[in-house]
Structures are given as C-alpha cells and as structure tokens.
C-alpha cells in the first residue's frame, strides 16, 4: 500500500524538447496516480543549471523533505553517488533513469545506449551493403550518454569495415548546434553515404546538407517531431528511406511506477533495461500521428506496462 | 602622425589575419575543393555571432564592468515567442518581428533597471535577468518546437548573389552600427562614457540616458538574432542561445574592442566571428577533439589580448 | 555604541542567513538536526573555498572568470592523478597554483584586464579537464572521502569545516602581515608602493593563494561527490562572485571579509534549498533562482544606505 | 661645502629639475635640510613644493640634479627610507580599508613577528598621545570610519613613530590643512620638541603664521625655483607674502566696470548652513578665490551637475565646464584633438543626429586658428599635444557651445604666459558679448581680472570682493582663518 507515500523527481536539465516531454509525461501520469490515491505526492524538481553539484544539493534537500522515493535523471553517473548514498542510508528508494547512476544502492532503468549506437550501423549495413563514408554527430562533450552511443557506433563500424567515419562533430543534441557544426565541416568532406547521430540533431544535419547543395545522405533520426516530419516530406517526395531511434521521454513514468512498486514491497531487480523507441519506414506515419507538434515521439507507461517490464526482467 | 593614428585601429587586423590563416589551413586540407562551400557556411554562421556581437560591443564600449549576460536567454525567448505568435503563417512575419523587438526592449529596460535602481553590478544583474527570462521562455512554450513561416524560413536559409541572406542582414546591421559609432552623436557619447564617464558628464553628455539606450539596443539585437536563428534552424529551442554567451563576448574582445571601454570596432567583430567559426571547422576537419579545441580557443584569446596589449598609460 | 563599518558589513549577511535558516527550519523541522544541518550545508564547503579564492582576487581589485572551470579541472585531477598516483597529482596541483601566480604577474606587468585573461583561461582549464576526463568518472582518494564524510561529535562536519575555513582565512587575510599588505594594494596601491613594497610580488601572492584555495575547493568537492566530471563546478564562477558580494565584499577597494564570504556561500546554498522547500512550479524554478539573487543583492543597496547613515551620524 | 656641513646634512637636493610634459615643475631647485632644524617651505600653488617632496622621498627621479642623504648620493624609495626619511603626503595616503594599526604595518616594514599587531597598536597609541594629547581616536577602527582630521592625525603619528630607528627627517606637506587650530597648535608644539631633540622637519603650509612660529629657516619657492632661503627671524608675514607673490604686471586697467543688467543668470545657495548665495549676471566674470581645496571645485561641480540632466539630452545646454584636472575629468585620451574639441557641441554640428564631418572640421579649423592650437592636423591624438595646448582645446570646447554660462575649474594650470594672455583676451571679448564666466583660480593675476570675487574658506563663501577691492592683500586676508593680519 503506497497511498501515503511521497515520490520526488530530481531532474538536472529542462532545456530541450526531450526533457520538456519527459516532464510533461511525468506530470500527466503522476497527477492521475495522485488523484486516484495511489501515492500521496509526486513532485518534480529541476535545477537551474545542468550541474552535478546543484543536483546533489537538490537531492540532499529532498532527503530532508522526507520523500519516500526519489526518481533521478542524473547530471552525472558518478558525481551524485555521495548524495544518492545518503538518500539510501536514510531509507529512501532511489530509482535512476536515462541519466543513470552507478551507486549500487540505487535502481537503474537503463537504455542500452551502446546497442542503440550499434543498431544504427546494423541498419545501414543492411540498407547499403557496399558501405560508404559516415559522418558522426556526437552529443555533449564530457557526458556519459555521448560516450556510450559513440562506443556503440565505433563497435558497429569495426564489425562492418565497409563503413568509414570520415568526420565527427559535437552537435550537443541540439538542431542549431548540429547544423552549425556540420555546415563547417561539410565542405571539406568527401561524398557522405550516411549520418549517424545521437538524437535531436538529425534535422539540423539535413538542413546543413540542403544548404550546401550536397546529395542528401541517409540521416538516422532521433524521434523529434521535426525530424519525423522532414523524413515524411522526403519520403512522399522521393521515397527517402531511413530509421529513427531514441529513448522515449515517457521512461520517466516507468521510473515512477518502478519506485511505486518498490515502495509497495515488490521485489525488483536493481538493473532494468527498457527498449529504445525505434521508428521505421513502415510505422513512420503512425508515430508521426501520435507525436505532439514540436515534441518527441513518446511512450508513456501505465502501472500494467511497468509491471510487465519488471516481470519480463525477473 | 598617421602612424600614431593607425596604432588605434590596428587590433582588428589580427582577427582578420587569424581568420585568413585558418581559412587557408582548412581549405588546404582538402586541396582547395572546399573553398567556396566553406566560405558560404562561414558567412552564414558568423552572421549570428556578428549580430549579437555588435550589441555586446556597444555595451562593452560603455567601460569597465559593463557586460550583458542575458543575451542567450533573450535569444531563446524572442525566438520562442515570435514563432508562437506567427504560428507558421506567412502573413504574421512582421508581427513576429515586432514581438521579437518588443521582447528585446523589455529585457533591456529590465536589465538597466536592475543596474541603476538596485545598483546591482551589470554582470550579476544581467545574469539574474537571464534566469527569469529563461523561465519565461519555458513557461510560454514548454520547449515545443514550432516551425517558422515558410516564407521566413526560406528567406533565412537562401542566398542572394551567392551570399547568404543572413550575412546580408548582418552586413546591414553592422553598417548601421558602424554609422552609429563613427558618424552619430550617440556613437561619440558611448565612446566618451567608456573613456571616462565623469569627464563625459562634465562635457554635457546625458550619461544615464545613453547607457540605458545601449542596454536596450544590445537586448534588441540579441532578440533579433534569436528571431533569425529560430527561423533559420527550423524552430526555436530552449537552449538555442547557449553558444552565444561566451561567443558574443569573445568576438568583441578578439575583434579588438578595448575591454577597458571607449574604443569599439565593428570590422573586428567580422574578423573575429569568421575566425571563431573557422577555427572550430578547422579543428573538426583535422579531427581534433573537444578538449584540444577548448584549450586552443583559450590560448588564442590570451594571445590576442597580449598582442593588443593593455591600455597604455597616458600622461 | 558605534559600529565599525567592518561589523556593519557582516551584520546583513549574517542576518539574512539567520532569517533564511529560520524559514527553512519552520518549513522543515527535521532540518534542525545533526544530519539535517549536514545535508543542508555540506555542499557549501567547496563553494565557500571557491568564494574565498575569488575574494582574494577581488581584494586586489581584479576578477576571476575562470574560477568554475579551474575548480572543475582540479576536481578532475583529484579524482584521477591524486587518487592513482598522489605524487604526480600533487605536482600538477602545485603547477596549477604556480600558473595562478604567473597570471597575477602577467596581469600586473602588462596592465591587462583580469577579466579577459581569465576568460581565456576558462577555456584552457575547461579543455584540460575534458582531456583528463572525457566522460565522468574517477574516484575520490580515500583520505579525502574520509575527511568529507567524517562524523565529529555534536556538530556535523559541514559546520566544523565552514568554521575552520572562516577562522583560518580570517587569520590569513585579516590578521597576517601578508593579508594586510594585499588588502592594502586593493585599498591604495600607491601608498603601499610608496612604503617600499613590491606590488607585483603582492599580486602574485594573492593569486597564488587564490589558486591554493581553489585547489582545496576541487578536492573537497570530489570528497563529497566521490567522482568528477569536466563540467562539475562551472557554476562556481558566478556563485563565488555572488558569495563575496553577498558577504559584504566589494568589487574594488580591498574591502573583503573572509567570514562574510563563508556566510555568503552558506546563504547561497541555503537559498537554493529554500526554493525547493517552497515547491515552486518547475517552469519557474530557474527564474526563482534569478529572483532570489536579485533580492539578496538588492539588500546591498540597503546595507550601503545603512552604512552611510551610520557614518553621517 | 665642508666636511662638517656634510655630516649635519640629512638631505640635500641640488640643481633638481623635473618636468611633466611641458610643465617645468622643478627648474633647478636647491634644498638642504640639516639635523635639528625645521625648514618651512612656502610658495604659490604649483610652485613645485610637493614635487620636491616627492624627489626627496625617492618617489620621483629628477631629470637633472643630485639627491644625497647624509652626504651620500642615492636614489629611490628604499634608500630614502633607509636614511630615516618619512613623509606625510599632501593627499591622504593611508589605505582607507585598513585599520589604523594595519596602516602602521604597511608603513613600517620592520614591524614583523607574530606580535606585530600589538606592537603597532602600542606604537600608534603612544605616538598619538605624544603629539595630540587627549585625542579620542580608536586605533582599532578602520581608517574610512575616521574623520578627515583624525586620518590626518593618524598619518602624522605613524610617520613620527619608530620601531627600530627613529626617523631623522619627517616631511609634512600641508599637515594642518584639515586640522583645527587646537590640533594644529599641538602638532606645531610637537614639531618644536622633535627638532630640539635632534630630528629634522620639512614643513609645508599655506598658513604663514605656523610657518613663521615653528620653523628655524624658511625657503620660498616660485615656479620651480627657490627664490629665498633665510632664517625665519628675517621674515615678517608681509615680506613672506611678497616673496611668494608673483610679479604684478601692469594690468587691471583694461578691466572696465561692468554694468549689471537684469536679473542674475545664476543664483545658488551652496551651503545649507550659511545663507550666502553665489550670484552671477550676464556678461560678468566672477572669480572664486581662496586657498586650494577649500570647496571651490565642489561648488562648480554642484552648480554644473544640478543644471545638467543625466537622462535626456538638452537641446541648449545652459552651462559649459572647463576642467582643470585634465586627466581626471577633461580629455578623452583615445580621441583626436578635433573630437575632444567638438564633444560638447555635437548637436549644433549635426543634422538628424548625424555629425557633419565638414562642419566639424570647419569649426576645428576656426578654433585652431583663433587660439593657436599648435598641431599640424586636428585629427592627431589629443595626447600628442603639450599640456598647455591640451588645455586650450578644453577651453575651446566650452567656448564653441552656445552656453550662456561657462564654469572654469582653475583651467590655467600648466599654461604658459603667452597662451594665458591670449585666453584672457578671448574671455574678455566673450564676456562683453554677454557670456558669463565663473572662474576658480589659484593665481592672483587671474583673480584680478574678475569683476567680482568670492573668497572661499572651509567650503563656504568667506568674503565677496567687488572691483577695486580685489587685491592680493584682501584675498589673502579672507583666505586665512582667523589668520594673518595684513
Ligand atoms: N604627475 C604630474 N603630471 C603633470 N603635472 C604635474 C604632476 N605633478 C605635478 N605637476 C605639475 O607640476 C607643478 C608643480 O606641482 P606641485 O604639486 O609640486 O606644486 P605645489 O607647490 O605642491 O602646489 P600646491 O601648493 O598646490 O600643493 C604644477 O604645475 C603641477 O600641475
Ligand atoms: N607623444 C607625442 N607624440 C607626438 N608628438 C608629440 C608628442 N608629445 C609632444 N609632441 C609634439 O611635440 C611638440 C612639443 O611638445 P611640448 O610638450 O614641448 O610643447 P610646448 O612647446 O611646450 O607647448 P606648450 O608651450 O603649449 O606647453 C608638441 O607641439 C607636439 O606636437
Ligand atoms: O537525456 C538525454 C536528452 O537530454 C537528450 O536530448 O537526448 C538523449 C537523452 O538521453
Ligand atoms: Mg609648454
Ligand atoms: Mg603641493
């Protein structure tokens, strides 16, 4: 029984559409849960700057405020460990997702980012067996998600030596930054067969290619609505083919239910994996339909969905 | 005598020289084939740094301690609000522009009110302001990317006579800024205030009024840049201004405007903006990682300031 | 009784800290405990150290815009070299302090604006940090972790550390000869020069001491977080400036107060907690940080008025 | 010079020349101070007194001439301090942010060891009660909390104080300018005791009474040279004033008594405590006289700032200001001569807020000829001009405007005789055309050019002199508080 339990969301960043979608999903699902009396409260807290120190302080405040569980999207997989440990010591359930933490006392809802990177190359290998030149757009330097996706892409390229990464830039998971960086390196690149990305950067890359009047390569997308819509337009116009992959922002709601289940006394494994959300040529239209204008393709979890994930992993 | 005069205008030469060197180094890597494409891309993206840089330059010219850290948040809010108001309709383009300008005016007024009425140092006043503006941007649209009107976005991304339209706008703004600085009374006034605000006051210059107008001008240019950038990149993002905080300051400083105030330099901002884009492209082209890129950027800033020298002691 | 201006300068920071603390206790009574106080304040310890470093730079009328990246860099060194091969780690950190002293010399000799030089250095330190830790990681040396998680009797370590920092830097900056001379440079450089002292040497000393405290900040931070990343302390630049101002320091004139600076750092940390206790809607949480910065700094205006009135009596 | 004289010499400056740009601050001055004497140094404002102090103190290297301490030629602050020279500067030189004891630490490098604070405190306390018995200064307070007089007392006490070596020579540059008569008397008594005990003092003051009563020997400086050096007993107040005063040239004749017309163009109560008003009528040249630093500059600033808004540009500025302190509030050092000249009248030189290059250049040319700015090109940097010529530009800046009132803050510092005559000529013609000038000057010659003069003392108007009443004697008499009967 968790009717008197209070759950907090500690979030380190709210500055892009993915994060806003994540907060919206949280808000929507937890409000229902509170109204139905499943839990007593589910408050969201976001730090002003994307900083581990600020988030650590925030978590310590949440401990003081007596929350029973804290759901964390962490600024750093390791730098919050001190604060997370304090929370565990105070008897608080800590569930991390997306930006997960390494502290053993916490639960982790992880996306296999490495596999996500590798899947891009696998898709490309099937689509263009003869291989070709790749441009890699990376995320924010110094952050672990960037490192993992990159590692996956590298592993994929090693397995498929017909592909060669001829250029790499940091797009910071933002369309405009990616556009700027790609436009700068593009003139000095040879013919590009495909662009591998991390999400939030595909549309910017497409614009840079269009502006430079270069043949449009296969750009792997990252589930943002503008990316999907651009893909749809190209598909209708000239049969453009690609795939899109990213973590669904609604994973915050899964984390919420996991926390609730743990509080409810359920035995839950410390490491859960959620599948990333992949969109292909066939289900593009369906996904575009269900994606909010300007938002991100999303999957929200109900209690039953969550129980399935927990069960499947047992 | 003319040698003495040239001394004052020399610093900006270096930013152009540096930009040229980096351009050659990048083009050379590809055996010359990238010359045209690289130049076009450089002009396009330098344009945005130029627009915010010009605004920041006006503020920095006001003398030590004057700086506007609210540039990124202003860009974000104006882009977000303008695209929301326009709502993809071509007919609303001018209304959107007006909204952007009003956002700039409001933030400029807010900044100077904090500086003047509450005596908060500009560096902290504008930072606090930027937090509030950022929250406002989140509250208005929750980060949803609204597309710009078709006409506006195709204007922002296309070329006239082979030159990117945004670069032409930057040129227009720089020309106006240059005329303001070199030919107008206002330009004389900010330069005088930057050299000594007390002497300016004693020469009959309305110091507060001039400073106020300058902070508003800087915010309006940032807002305009946000409007253009959002139209150019297919929508406003909550973090779209982030890059332009240090960028706006760096292009001013590297461009040869005196940090001690009083001496500003429009051409230098062009040189420095071209250079800042090219240096990243070059390091990307040569395959350097983020760490080396940062270190080189820092060393270059220090090298330029060392070469340009401090303000020489005057008799 | 007539209060000295130094005392008045401490009254408002101390009072605002007290008010804020009372409000927090009222909203959350369980903060009023050993663990509660430690949770509220332990992350203020590295901020206090960084604020002291910034204060030393400001005491000679300069400003350091690289404080945040420098602390990040030293945190990365602490989590890597200092942990795995202490000798090399100490060498690197000593080199970083020497680099600070050299900056002081260059800024003085070439008459450069400290703002631009340190802006450039912020890129350099940031780049070095990214090279050192391309992705988050490393580990706190055992002894650092031990110090930062110690459980002294009666008073939590966060309070003990704050008091030690305040007391020792008070001795260093307000009581020692060197501290007097450094503040003298900020107050009236010409008369210090006329009395036969070398200003270059004094500025170098101030910068070196700032570097030393910034290094301590990095080490303390890693002790709390257990690991580091290249962006870990970026916000310390502005926090440290705000902390000095909040603690009654001024941008020019050598008017600084180490005790005030520590109180300022504690206040800023507490202000953040205060906001999260207030349950502001997520949309406005960022804006509220700006608002509280404005409110607290606007107190300065009030403080100055009060001080002037006190003087004109 | 014989051996014995050398032994007795504490400091000797011989044939010293110092120039600041075009200003010859010291022009071959000799000054010898021997053990056990108090030398009084007097001279008009700008005579070079403070400059020779700086030379003796080691802070300034003379371009020509030698400095010796105890017969040994040496240079620099360290050398002079090593020979026991201490200095109380004209402008206060304590660190305002430090406490009294901490300032003593800065001044005395031999105050070392862990107990320095106690030692410093004892030292200052002891010295303060020696010099100013009955004082109430709290030595643990910060200097900025003290009154001006208290700061002056502290600085004096610190300079006379000794840790290891007693000071051999203490230089006091206008030490009583902010002390009341009682404190000044205590200080003078102490100086006599100090000298009797074998120390030396160099005393600079505009208060001739204390110079005559305290010093053994009086040195008079004028225009960077020593013009008299005699035992104090050979001077009377009147002869001293005569020795100081500059040559009275035939003039004053061309000053025609002006007829006041209409209402005052300016009427301002300067000090809330006194009801005397400063008034000026169209076409008048009003002088502000008195000793330097007695509130004349402040009065001008107050008049100017209260008339000129800080937010809105004024179409027709009522007043223009000519700065005296060029570096602080006059020239814009990054600009050309032309821009410096035109900055106050840009409105008139522009159409639709755009400055017309042609009109600006034309005005520049006109004024270059009219006041003979010696430059080949008005576009040269202002700093390429000599000081005198820079000052002419500042003059022209005010005269170019259409302002009816021109405020002048002792603007002739460092201006040579020829130029001065030219400027006086322009002033007269502008005044007869109806402009009003309010002119603070430290030079008697200039004061005599005025139609009416307000003499300032302690920040307030002490006397108003009209027409023939404007004489050096009357001005001096009004300048010295309770002072010298002339
Ligand atoms: N640093 C400087 N730069 C330029 N000119 C200077 C400087 N210092 C002094 N002068 C000029 O040198 C001359 C002598 O100045 P000094 O200060 O020695 O006069 P003084 O006799 O002490 O006058 P007062 O009685 O007003 O103190 C003056 O004309 C002054 O303007
Ligand atoms: N820094 C400089 N750069 C270029 N030219 C200079 C510089 N300083 C002085 N000059 C030139 O040298 C000339 C002589 O300078 P100086 O200062 O001796 O003038 P001056 O004849 O004494 O003038 P005044 O009598 O008006 O003071 C000046 O007219 C000026 O044109
Ligand atoms: O947290 C990340 C989000 O901020 C980014 O935009 O997309 C990938 C996510 O993992
Ligand atoms: Mg001359
Ligand atoms: Mg003097």
Key phrases:
heterotetramer; A: 314 residues; alpha/beta; 12 strands; B: 315 residues; mainly alpha; ABC transporter involved in vitamin B12 uptake, BtuC; 14 helices; globular; disordered C terminus; binds adenosine-5'-triphosphate; binds beta-D-ribopyranose; binds magnesium ion
- Total strand count of chain B, please? 2
> What is the third-level CATH name, the topology of chain B?
ABC transporter involved in vitamin B12 uptake, BtuC
Instruction: Provide the helix percentage of chain B.
Output: over 70%
Assembly context of the chains: heterotetramer
Determine the most extensive contact between two protein chains: B-C, 50 and 43 residues
* Unreliable runs of chain D: 1-6, 246-254, 482-486
Helix run count of chain B:
14
N-to-C span of chain D: 39 Å
Shape descriptor of chain B: globular
Strand runs of chain D, count: 20
Radius of gyration of chain B: 19 Å
| Rg of chain D computed from alpha carbons, rounded to a whole number of angstroms | 25 Å
Number of domains of chain B: 1
Strand pairing plus helix content of chain D: what structural class?
Answer: alpha/beta
Q: Structural class of the helices, strands and pairings of chain B? A: mainly alpha
Mean model confidence by pLDDT of chain D: 83
State the end-to-end CA separation of chain B.
18 Å
Strand residues, percent of chain D: 15-25%
Q: Count of DSSP helices of chain D?
A: 17
Offer a quick outline of the entry.
In chain B, 75% of the residues lie in helices and 1% in strands. With 315 residues, chain B is mainly alpha-helical. Chain B is globular, with a radius of gyration of 19 Å.
């Amino acid at each position: 029984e968790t009717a008197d339990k209070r759950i907090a969301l500690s979030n380190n960043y709210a500055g892009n559409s993915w994060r806003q979608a994540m907060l919206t999903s949280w808000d929507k699902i937890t409000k229902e849960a509170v109204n139905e009396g499943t839990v007593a409260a589910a408050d969201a807290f976001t730090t002003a700057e994307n900083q581990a120190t600020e988030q650590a302080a925030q978590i310590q405040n949440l401990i003081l405020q007596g929350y029973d569980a804290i759901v964390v999207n962490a600024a750093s997989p390791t730098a919050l460990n001190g604060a997370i440990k304090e929370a565990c010591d105070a008897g608080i359930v800590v569930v991390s997702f997306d930006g997960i933490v390494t502290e053993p006392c916490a639960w982790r809802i992880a996306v296999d980012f490495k596999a996500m990177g590798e899947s891009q190359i696998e898709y490309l290998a099937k689509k263009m067996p003869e291989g070709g030149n790749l441009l890699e757009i990376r995320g924010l330097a110094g952050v672990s998600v960037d490192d993992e996706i990159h590692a996956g892409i590298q592993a994929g390229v090693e397995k498929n030596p017909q592909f060669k990464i001829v250029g790499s830039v940091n797009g910071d998971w933002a369309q405009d930054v990616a556009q700027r960086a790609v436009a700068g390196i593009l003139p000095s690149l040879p013919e590009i067969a495909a662009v591998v990305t991390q999400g939030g950067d595909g549309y910017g890359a497409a614009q840079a290619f269009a502006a430079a009047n270069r043949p449009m390569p296969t750009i792997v997308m990252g589930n943002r609505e503008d990316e999907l819509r651009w893909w749809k337009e190209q598909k209708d116009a000239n049969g453009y083919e690609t795939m899109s992959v990213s973590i669904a922002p609604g994973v915050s709601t899964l984390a919420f239910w996991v926390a609730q289940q743990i509080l409810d006394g359920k035995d839950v494994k410390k490491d859960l994996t959620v599948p990333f959300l992949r969109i292909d040529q066939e289900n593009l239209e369906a996904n575009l339909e269900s994606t909010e204008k300007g938002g991100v393709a999303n999957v929200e979890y109900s209690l039953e969905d969550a129980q399935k994930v927990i069960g499947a992993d047992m | 005598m003319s040698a003495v005069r040239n001394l004052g205008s020399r610093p900006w030469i270096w930013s152009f020289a540096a930009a040229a060197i980096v351009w050659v180094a990048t083009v050379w890597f590809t055996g010359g084939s990238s010359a045209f494409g690289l130049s076009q891309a450089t002009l396009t993206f330098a344009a945005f740094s130029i627009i915010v840089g010009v605004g920041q330059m006006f503020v920095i010219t006001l003398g030590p301690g004057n700086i506007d850290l609210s540039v990124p948040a202003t860009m974000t809010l104006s882009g977000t609000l303008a695209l929301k108001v326009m709502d993809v309709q071509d007919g609303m383009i001018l209304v959107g522009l007006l909204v952007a300008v009003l956002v700039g005016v409001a933030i400029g007024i807010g900044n100077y009110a904090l500086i003047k009425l509450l005596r908060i140092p500009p560096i902290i006043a504008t930072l606090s302001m930027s937090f509030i503006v950022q929250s406002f941007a989140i509250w208005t649209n929750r980060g949803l990317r609204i597309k710009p009107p078709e006409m506006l976005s195709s204007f922002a991304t296309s070329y006239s006579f082979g030159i990117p339209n945004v670069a032409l706008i930057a040129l227009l703004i720089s020309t106006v800024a240059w005329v303001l600085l070199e030919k107008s009374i206002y330009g004389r006034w900010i330069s005088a205030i930057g050299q000594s605000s007390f002497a300016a006051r004693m020469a009959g210059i309305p110091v507060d009024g001039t400073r106020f107008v300058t902070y508003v001008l800087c915010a309006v240019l940032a807002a305009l840049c946000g409007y253009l950038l959002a139209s150019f990149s297919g929508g406003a993002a909550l973090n779209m201004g982030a890059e332009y905080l240090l960028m706006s300051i760096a292009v001013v400083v590297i461009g040869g405007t005196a940090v001690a105030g009083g001496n500003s330099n429009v051409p230098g901002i062009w040189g420095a903006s071209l250079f800042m884009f090219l240096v990243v492209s070059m390091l990307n082209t040569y395959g350097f990682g983020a760490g080396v890129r940062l270190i080189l950027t820092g060393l270059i800033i220090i090298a330029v300031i060392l070469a340009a020298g401090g303000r020489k002691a005057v008799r | 009784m007539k209060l000295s201006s130094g005392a008045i300068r401490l009254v408002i920071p101390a009072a605002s800290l007290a008010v804020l603390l009372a409000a927090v206790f009222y909203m959350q009574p369980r903060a009023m405990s050993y663990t509660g106080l430690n949770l509220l304040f332990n992350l203020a310890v590295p901020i206090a150290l960084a604020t002291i470093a910034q204060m030393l730079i400001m005491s000679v009328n300069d400003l350091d815009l690289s404080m945040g990246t420098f602390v990040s860099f030293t945190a990365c060194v602490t989590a890597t070299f200092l942990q795995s091969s202490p000798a090399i780690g100490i060498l690197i950190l000593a080199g970083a302090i020497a680099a600070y002293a050299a900056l002081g010399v260059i800024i003085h000799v070439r008459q450069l604006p400290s703002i631009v030089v340190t802006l450039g250095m912020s890129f350099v330190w940031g780049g070095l940090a990214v090279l050192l830790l391309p992705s988050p990681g490393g580990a706190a040396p055992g002894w650092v972790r031990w110090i930062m998680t110690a459980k002294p009797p009666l008073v939590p370590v966060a309070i003990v550390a704050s008091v030690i920092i305040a007391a020792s830097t008070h001795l260093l900056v307000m009581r020692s000869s060197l501290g007097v001379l450094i503040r003298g440079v900020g107050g009236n450089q010409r008369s210090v020069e006329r009395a036969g002292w070398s200003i270059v040497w004094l500025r170098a000393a101030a910068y070196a001491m700032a570097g030393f405290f910034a290094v301590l900040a990095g080490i303390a931070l890693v002790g709390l977080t257990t690991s580091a990343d290249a962006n870990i302390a970026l916000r310390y630049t502005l926090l440290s400036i705000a902390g000095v101002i909040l603690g009654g320091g001024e941008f020019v004139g050598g008017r600084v107060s180490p005790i005030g600076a520590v109180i300022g750092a504690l206040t800023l940390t507490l202000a953040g907690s205060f906001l999260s206790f207030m349950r502001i809607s997520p949309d406005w949480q960022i804006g509220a940080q700006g608002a509280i910065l404005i409110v607290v700094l606007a107190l300065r205006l009030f403080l100055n008025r009060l001080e002037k009135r006190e003087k004109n009596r | 010079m014989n051996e014995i004289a050398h032994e007795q010499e504490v400091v000797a400056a011989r044939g010293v020349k110092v120039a600041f740009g075009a200003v010859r601050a010291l022009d071959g001055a000799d000054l010898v101070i021997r053990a056990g004497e108090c030398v009084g140094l007097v001279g008009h404002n700008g005579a070079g007194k403070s400059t020779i102090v700086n030379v003796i103190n080691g802070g300034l290297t003379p371009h020509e001439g030698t400095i010796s301490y105890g017969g040994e030629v040496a240079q620099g602050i360290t050398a002079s301090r090593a020979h026991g020279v201490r200095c109380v500067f004209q402008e206060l030189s304590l660190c305002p942010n430090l406490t009294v004891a901490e300032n003593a630490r800065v001044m005395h490098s031999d105050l070392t060891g862990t107990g320095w604070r106690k030692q410093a405190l004892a030292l200052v306390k002891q010295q303060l009660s020696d010099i100013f018995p009955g004082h109430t200064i709290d030595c643990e307070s910060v200097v900025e909390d003290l009154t001006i007089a208290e700061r002056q007392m502290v600085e004096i006490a610190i300079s006379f104080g000794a840790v290891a070596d007693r000071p051999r020579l203490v230089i006091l540059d206008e030490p009583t300018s902010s002390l009341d008569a009682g404190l000044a008397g205590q200080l003078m008594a102490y100086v006599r005791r100090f000298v009797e005990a074998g120390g030396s003092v160099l005393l600079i003051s505009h208060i001739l009474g204390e110079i005559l009563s305290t010093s053994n020997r009086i040195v008079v400086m004028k225009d960077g040279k020593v013009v008299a050096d005699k035992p104090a007993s050979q001077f009377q107040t009147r002869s001293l004033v005569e020795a100081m005063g500059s040559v009275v040239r035939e003039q004053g004749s061309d000053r025609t008594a002006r007829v006041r017309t209409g209402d005052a163009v300016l009427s301002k109560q300067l000090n809330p405590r006194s009801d005397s008003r400063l008034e000026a009528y169209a076409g008048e040249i009003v002088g502000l006289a008195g000793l330097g630093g007695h509130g004349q500059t402040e009065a001008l600033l107050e008049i100017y700032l209260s008339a000129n808004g800080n937010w809105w540009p004024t179409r027709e500025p009522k007043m223009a200001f000519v700065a005296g302190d060029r570096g602080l509030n006059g020239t814009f050092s990054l600009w050309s001569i032309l821009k410096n000249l035109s900055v106050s009248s840009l409105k008139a030189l522009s159409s639709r807020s755009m400055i017309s290059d042609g009109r600006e250049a034309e005005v520049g040319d006109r004024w270059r000829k009219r006041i003979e700015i010696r430059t080949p090109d008005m576009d040269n940097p202002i700093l390429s001009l000599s000081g005198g010529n820079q000052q002419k530009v500042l003059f022209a800046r005010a005269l170019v405007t259409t302002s009816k009132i021109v405020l002048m803050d002792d603007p002739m510092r460092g201006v040579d005789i020829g130029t001065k005559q030219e400027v006086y000529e322009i002033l007269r013609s502008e005044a007869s055309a109806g402009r009003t000038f309010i002119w603070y000057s430290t030079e008697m010659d200039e004061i005599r050019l005025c139609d009416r003069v307000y003499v300032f003392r302690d920040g307030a108007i002490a006397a108003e002199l009209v027409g023939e009443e404007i004489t050096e004697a009357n001005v001096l008499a009004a300048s010295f508080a309770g002072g010298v009967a002339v």
